């Protein structure tokens, strides 16, 4: 690639012609991993291969398809010291190995407080009661008959990146940032169901709440301001086109766009309209942030704007040597849409504007790319996002100045990967 006029500061896409010229010049590129001499025949091209000399699997072989065996490392993983008990536990989405923005349910992270339960649609009931005109119980079949909506949102656990407050700790984007997924949900607006129950007896809803709980033993009860409930909260029964997986709340879960994952109650069974917040365990002893002076930040529902480079990263090292390199990652904001992402390869001294794969959508993941010509020297790669409220993702030190070091939740700081000359990457901090 030494013959291209590509200037990484401008961040253009290297032209296909320049790429092919570069490949021919080095005898590598598209040939077999660079090993083949320039004129030696490539058996993968010149010889008939096994897969072309017999027949493949019939259409009956996979009534429901699984990923091909060669992709068997694209899986949820946990951190052993963090997850000794798998019943009340967490695992992480392999974001370093995915592209685009939709997370397949099969590898989307899970968080359970008392295990994933099995609940048949026939046994499903949803009760809406409290300060409503008519308390109601819905079956699954009832829910299917209300006007439906389809929307894509990210769910981020408030504890995502929570292990990184004191210093760089977990070596991989899956572990530092993998408590997130992004799915297209189909279901009913909660407003539709609340209207069905009637809210005249709730009076002025500006100071009212709902309390939501699940059918699992933990129940994961949380209070949500009625104003948010009437705004964009969904009762979802499909994700990415198919039924919710058991581990994501089959048959029905709550979707609370932009707000912390703990509020997205799975196996949803009860919604009570209340005059006050309930102050449940999940919102007092958990999901509050302890500040330096010992006081607690409470009701920290919104997930602030955040981004991370998913490749290159510790689990996605550069294996092709110098030359054209796709730097890519994800950005999101619980306050609205991502408007821009900047990427630095020198630890924040100079920034380049990344290309958004598509315009940012409110409270959904945005994919970004930066196409560079890597000179083979070490890099300190970071991304920094902006949202449509004007918010800019902070550095770790800016966040520590305000929150101290006692926090677990809501760490949305800029992440640094040290990419070495070998292409391997490590989780580090730059000051
Ligand atoms: N009923 C119930 N809902 C729940 C939980 C739970 O344990 N029980 N865990 C919560 C937490 S802390 C998170 S981060 C999200 C995780 O959703 P997921 O497992 O689909 O990724 O579900 C939330 N909803
Ligand atoms: Mo969570």
Automatic annotation (TrEMBL):
GO terms for biological process: sulfur compound metabolic process. It comes from the Bacteria. Residues 297-416 form the Moybdenum cofactor oxidoreductase dimerisation domain. InterPro entries: Ig_E-set, MoCF_OxRdtse_dimer, Mopterin_OxRdtase_euk, OxRdtase_Mopterin-bd_dom, OxRdtase_Mopterin-bd_sf, Sulfite_DH_SoxC, TAT_signal, TAT_signal_bac_arc. Residues 119-278 form the Oxidoreductase molybdopterin-binding domain. Pfam families: Mo-co_dimer (PF03404), Oxidored_molyb (PF00174). Its cofactor is Mo-molybdopterin. GO terms for molecular function: heme binding; molybdenum ion binding; molybdopterin cofactor binding; sulfite oxidase activity. SUPFAM superfamilies: E set domains, Oxidoreductase molybdopterin-binding domain. Gene3D superfamilies: 2.60.40.650, Oxidoreductase, molybdopterin-binding domain (3.90.420.10). Keywords: Metal-binding, Molybdenum, Oxidoreductase. PANTHER family: SULFITE OXIDASE, MITOCHONDRIAL, SULFITE REDUCTASE. This is TMAO/DMSO reductase. It comes from Pacificibacter marinus.
């Amino acid at each position: 690639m030494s013959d291209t006029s590509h200037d990484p500061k401008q961040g253009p896409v290297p032209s296909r012609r320049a790429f092919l010229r570069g490949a021919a010049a080095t005898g590598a590129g598209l040939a077999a991993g660079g090993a083949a001499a320039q004129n030696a025949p490539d058996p993968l091209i010149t010889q008939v291969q096994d897969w072309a000399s017999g027949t493949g699997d019939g259409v009956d072989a996979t009534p429901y398809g699984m990923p091909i065996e060669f992709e068997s490392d694209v899986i949820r993983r946990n951190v052993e010291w963090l997850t000794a008990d798998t019943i009340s536990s967490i695992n992480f989405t392999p974001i370093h190995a995915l592209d685009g923005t939709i997370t397949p349910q099969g590898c989307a992270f899970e968080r359970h407080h008392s295990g994933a339960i099995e609940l048949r649609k026939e046994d499903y009931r949803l009760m809406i009661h409290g300060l409503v005109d008519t308390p109601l119980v819905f079956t699954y079949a009832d829910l299917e008959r209300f006007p439906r909506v389809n929307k894509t949102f990210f769910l981020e656990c408030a504890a995502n990146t929570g292990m990184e407050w004191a210093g760089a700790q977990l070596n991989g984007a899956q572990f530092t940032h993998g408590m997130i997924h992004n799915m297209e949900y189909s279901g009913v607006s909660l407003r539709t169901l609340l209207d069905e129950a009637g809210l005249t007896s709730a009076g002025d809803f500006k100071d009212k709440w709902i309390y939501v709980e699940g059918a699992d033993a933990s129940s994961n009860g949380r209070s949500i301001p009625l104003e948010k409930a009437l705004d964009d909260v969904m009762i979802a029964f499909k994700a990415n086109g198919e039924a919710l997986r058991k581990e994501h709340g089959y048959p029905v879960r709550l979707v609370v766009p932009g707000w912390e994952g703990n509020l997205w109650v799975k196996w949803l069974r009860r919604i009570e309209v209340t005059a006050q917040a309930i102050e449940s365990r999940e919102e007092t002893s958990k999901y509050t942030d302890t500040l330096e002076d010992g006081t607690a930040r409470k009701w920290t529902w919104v997930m602030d704007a955040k981004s991370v480079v998913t490749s290159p990263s510790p689990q996605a090292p550069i294996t092709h040597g110098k030359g054209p390199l796709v730097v890519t990652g994800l950005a999101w904001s619980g306050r609205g849409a991502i408007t821009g992402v900047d990427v630095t390869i020198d630890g924040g001294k100079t920034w380049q504007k990344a290309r958004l794969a598509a315009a940012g959508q409110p409270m959904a993941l945005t994919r970004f790319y930066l196409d560079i010509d890597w000179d083979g020297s070490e890099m300190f790669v970071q991304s920094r996002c902006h949202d449509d409220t004007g918010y800019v993702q902070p550095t770790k030190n800016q966040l520590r100045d305000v929150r101290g070091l006692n926090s677990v939740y809501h760490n949305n700081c800029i992440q640094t990967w040290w990419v070495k000359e070998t292409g391997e990457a490590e989780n580090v901090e730059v000051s």
